[in-house]
């Protein structure tokens, strides 16, 4: 064990999908790390010490040997470069086009589908499901998610690109916003998301204590 | 000149900050490409042929030898891998930590600062400035932008990381949303943004016909 393991700052309740994404990358690579929890409701992410490290006062932030980095996709890319395959497990596909597509998926899931992300917050996935029906707009957004996911996921495949990559976890979480709340999801995508959800790295996050 | 140059799909009015980002990467690298303009108001991005290429019906999309890719940061990363330095100009820093920080900046500018992006749309930068004052929320957002940019930009520096990278262009555009509309911007940041704006690659985009 290293003397100074990596530190990952996450939200107090372990509900941030972006903190989860980095957490899963770290666990898939088998890198020792500690988590530091910030209570966002108590504005702990706005405290000066954290803000100076994170720059943008967002979670997650990774600190590695004094280097503090925020934005989950940037962190996973950094981990892929510093703890690179084949010594460590790959978080991204090795093929240039597949790696590009994985980045597209990550960027898209972080900048689109707002009505769905809003009406199916991750607290409904990790803490308590909701019984509120989806609005018409959120249903349209869900349809877009299904259409894109069905185009991306090859027939019969368990992963987007042959082997697992971090975009699988991100896409599975977006689908689980619906699956976990009993919303209608095409069977093939439901199976995909549910299988992704069973990965030990993901389950380790899912089963964090939240009380 | 290659027989099949790259094709970049952009919005009809050349106002998408993400299309601009890829456009600038292509020009900095000196890669021949053609632009195809989609009238978003006429829903041309929702037409089946485009949707099948872009997957998500967003601009920009780059098509390179039959491979269609969307999401501007994913496209610039792809171009950096396929048209790599030192044969082509670098779009990202070579240092691992600086490259990580550039990715952080790109991801942050694409997922935060919403009130500012909304009240200072890029039409006010490229077509017609607005005289509407910023709301209190947008002013707070501008303060966050200034605080982060001032921490990122070394004193006296013209670029974030020594040499130009695509995160400079993205950050400059975010600042120009304010500069172009006469909003208050700290002098050092105003100088930085205005200098970045003068790069030939950026001016080539700025001076596109928009009528
Ligand atoms: Ca940081
Ligand atoms: Ca808790
Ligand atoms: Ca695409
Ligand atoms: Ca026009």
- The protein's oligomeric status is homodimer
Average predicted local confidence, pLDDT of chain A: 94
User: What is the third-level CATH name, the topology of the largest domain in chain A?
Assistant: Glutathione S-transferase Yfyf (Class Pi), Chain A, domain 2
Low-confidence stretches of chain A: none
Total of helices of chain A: 10
User: Per the principal axes of the C-alpha atoms, what is the gross shape of chain A?
Assistant: globular
The SSE order of chain A reads EHEHEEHHHHHHHH
Query: For the report, how would you describe the main beta sheet of chain A?
Result: 4 strands, mixed
Number of distinct beta strands of chain A: 4
Domain GST N-terminal (chains A, B): 6-87
Organism (chains A, B): Rhodoferax lithotrophicus
Protein name (chains A, B): Glutathione S-transferase YfcF
InterPro entries (chains A, B): Glutathione-S-Trfase_C_sf, Glutathione_S-Trfase, Glutathione_S-Trfase_N, GST_4_C, Thioredoxin-like_sf
């Amino acid at each position: 064990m290293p003397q100074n393991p990596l530190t990952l700052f996450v939200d107090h309740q372990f509900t941030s999908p972006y903190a989860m994404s980095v957490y899963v990358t770290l666990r898939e690579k088998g890198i020792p790390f500690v988590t530091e929890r910030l209570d966002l409701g108590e504005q702990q992410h706005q405290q000066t010490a954290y803000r100076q490290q994170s720059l943008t006062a967002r979670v997650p932030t990774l600190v590695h040997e004094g280097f503090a980095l925020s934005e989950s996709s940037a962190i996973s890319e950094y981990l892929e470069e510093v703890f690179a395959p084949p010594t460590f497990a790959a978080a991204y596909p090795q093929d240039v086009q597949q790696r590009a597509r994985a980045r597209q998926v990550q960027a898209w899931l972080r900048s689109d589908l707002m009505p769905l992300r809003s009406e199916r917050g991750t607290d409904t996935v990790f803490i308590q499901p909701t019984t509120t029906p989806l609005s018409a707009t959120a249903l349209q957004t869900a349809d877009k998610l299904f259409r894109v996911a069905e185009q991306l996921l090859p027939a019969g495949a368990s992963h987007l690109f042959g082997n697992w990559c971090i975009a699988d976890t991100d896409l599975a979480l977006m689908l689980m916003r619906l699956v976990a709340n009993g919303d209608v999801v095409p069977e093939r995508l439901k199976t995909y998301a549910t299988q992704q959800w069973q990965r030990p790295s993901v389950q380790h996050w899912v089963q964090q204590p939240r009380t």
